[in-house]
Amino acid sequence: MKKVFARSKVLSDVDFTYCPGCTHGIAHRLIAEAIEELGILEKTIGICPVGCAVFAYEFFECDMIEAAHGRAPAVATGVKRALPDRIVFTYQGDGDLASIGMAEIVHAAARGENISVFFINNAVYGMTGGQMAPTTILGQKTTTSPYGRQPEREGYPIRVCELLSTLDGPAYITRVALTNPRYVLQAKKAVLKAFQTQIEGKGFSLVEMLSACPSILGLKPIDALKWVEENMIPIYPLGEFVVK
Which ranges in 54-132 belong to alpha helices (H)? Predict the structure, then answer.
């Protein structure tokens, strides 16, 4: 029998431990396939911090480094400057990157650090119990916004791509979604472009991926994907924001 699809050699031969319907697995596969297709496995170093993203070190066959909460861009900066011939990426959630790590991501982008950032935005803190994240949308109920996020009480959601695109440092910033096959194919192209941007020495790149967290949303996996498309994409429009 002819094999038409197989696990990327960049992914470890273990089962994902993410919740059923979580799209972290899709994001992992896209990153792994891009690394394999570009032939950069032996010189790639990944940085993963606290949150659901912390488990990435179990699933990638490239060198992985754990970082303190929010500090992945700072660690990646040190690794890339010390080993400029390596391909360095961070894998971060919205609570990590847009909250405790906001200073790190803004300054790494402003400096134009030649790293690739993969930013998973599921609009909530996943691992720690469903607290409100900087990306939680207005009206969304969480454990720390039980009546729904209100601007006068909790402020407005932060749009990371739009924020970073005002800086001069970034070379490539885009937002994609992981909710249907067409969007996944677009996300794959974005991941490849982020790595290629680094390979060509152009500077900082970030791919934001709108992702589903069925467990925290309390929805079935398919319904969680629909929720992302119906509720998040209008607030976080897809597309490229910076291309150099």
Answer: 56-59, 72-82, 94-95, 102-111
